[in-house]
Amino acid sequence: MIKLASRLNTIVESNTLRMAKLSRELQAQGKDVINLSLGEPDFQTPQHIKDAAKKAIDDGYTFYTPVVGYLDLRQAISKKFEIDNGLYYTPEQIVVSTGAKQSIINVLLSILNVGDEVIIPTPFWVSYSEMVKIAEGVPVYVHSNVTQDYKPTVAQLEAAITSKTKAFIFSSPCNPTGSVFSKEELFEIAKMFEKYPEIIIIADEIYEHINFIGKHESIGQFNFIKDRVVTVNGMSKGFAMTGWRLGYIGAPKEIAQACEKLQGQFTSGTNSIAQRAALFALQSDLKPTIEMANAFHRRRDLVIKLLKEIEGLKLNIPEGAFYVFPDVSSYFGKSDGTTTINNCEDLCMYILHNANVSIVGGDSFGAPECVRFSYATSDEKLTEAISRIKNALQHLK
Ligand code: PMP
Ligand code: GLU
């Protein structure tokens, strides 16, 4: 028998990827499953970016790349941070990685010692907690619920700080809630952290472009904390480039250098073709990105309208990303005569088997009273999926 490392016992499988895998398996068996579990734009990568990648191959970009990424790409990211976000990271402070996922684990592995605490507001993206554990840190959750638009108060965050707190990580726009922090809210959070100069702030801005309320705001824009803000971003969401695997950070120089050292032993530089395509994407017109964001906005309105017609769901109005995260706890304890729903996982399985729609339970996002719908799919599929769910839920009494 093969004995695995005990590290595996401390972490759980990514629930988003597990549900996506399950719905693919059911689809392969011929079941008409509508997949609302995976957070991935349903759009193709814009043609001009694909063309840039093809050209990169023909131009000979086929060799190992510098561990931190090509200099011209890091220059373009540095400029993007400045122009779009009011952030000042020199190219030496930028590290390009194989997806924002790798960017985040690089940072956590670079800063955490055993037992160091990381404050994570819940609901949070599934991988934050597990990555902290992989780095032998301790996730410290700060709970907020639908009535707070899933945003913790500054007082709640401050109450979670201890002498062991090393970092604070959050996403805005948020996966899974779609909540967006305003400039004023970020300023208040930053002001509080100003009192704790040891704490590193990790701002995950991967949904920057999918924002329905206007300008995206970054916490690193405030001068009094900017020297300890790591800003995470990438190409997956805003440019429909999930499969290309390209993420990046702007970070204090020491952290960027640590990430280079780690990444140099793990994966080396990011794929050369993806880097050339990303450079081209960042330097070209954002029209396709804006069109995709507009489509997500329209779908958000559609999904909210349809979900409001289902009894017993408590909703916030997501202002960004492409998720809805209703509180479904009013269904707990109900039964259709055969199946009793005891928790969000039971409800997801009930919906999967009775409505042929795959969604994700909120427990892995730190909110066991909720479920997550990804609305990154067509209007027709969304309308059909929610109608099926409505029918299935009507049988629960
Ligand atoms: N952060 C958040 C909040 C996400 O939803 C995702 C999506 N997987 C990532 C980071 C990682 O993105 P990627 O690795 O595709 O760049
Ligand atoms: N971020 C996406 C999601 O939340 C992709 C899946 C993943 O990487 O976990 O569904």
What does this structure look like?
The protein has 397 residues and is α/β, with parallel strands linked by helices. It has 2 domains: 6-44 and 288-393, Aspartate Aminotransferase, domain 1 (Alpha-Beta Complex); 47-282, Type I PLP-dependent aspartate aminotransferase-like (Major domain) (Aspartate Aminotransferase, domain 2, 3-Layer(aba) Sandwich), CATH 3.40.640. The protein is 40% helix and 13% strand. It contains 13 helices and 12 strands. The protein has helices at residues 7-10, 15-28, 47-58, 71-85, 100-111, 127-134, 154-159, 183-194, 253-266, 272-283, 287-308, 344-355, 379-394, and strands at 34-35, 94-97, 117-122, 138-143, 165-171, 200-204, 229-234, 247-250, 323-324, 357-358, 360-361, 371-374. The strands form 3 sheets. A 7-stranded mixed beta sheet has the order 2-8-7-6-5-3-4, sandwiched between helices. It has a 3-stranded antiparallel beta sheet with strand order 9-12-11. Helix 8 links the parallel strand 5 (165-171) and strand 6. Helix 3 (47-58) crosses helix 10 and helix 11 (287-308) packs parallel to helix 13. The longest helix has 22 residues, at 287-308. The radius of gyration is 21 Å and the shape is globular. The relative contact order is 0.17. Bound molecules: 4'-deoxy-4'-aminopyridoxal-5'-phosphate and glutamic acid. Residues 14, 16-17, 38-40, 125-127, 175 line the site of glutamic acid.
* CATH homologous superfamily label of the largest domain: Type I PLP-dependent aspartate aminotransferase-like (Major domain)
Number of domains: 2
Cα-based radius of gyration, to the nearest Å: 21 Å
- Give the ligands present: 4'-deoxy-4'-aminopyridoxal-5'-phosphate, glutamic acid
The total beta strand count reads 12
The profile of the biggest β sheet is: 7 strands, mixed
CATH fold assignment of the largest domain: Aspartate Aminotransferase, domain 2
Supply the number of helical segments: 13
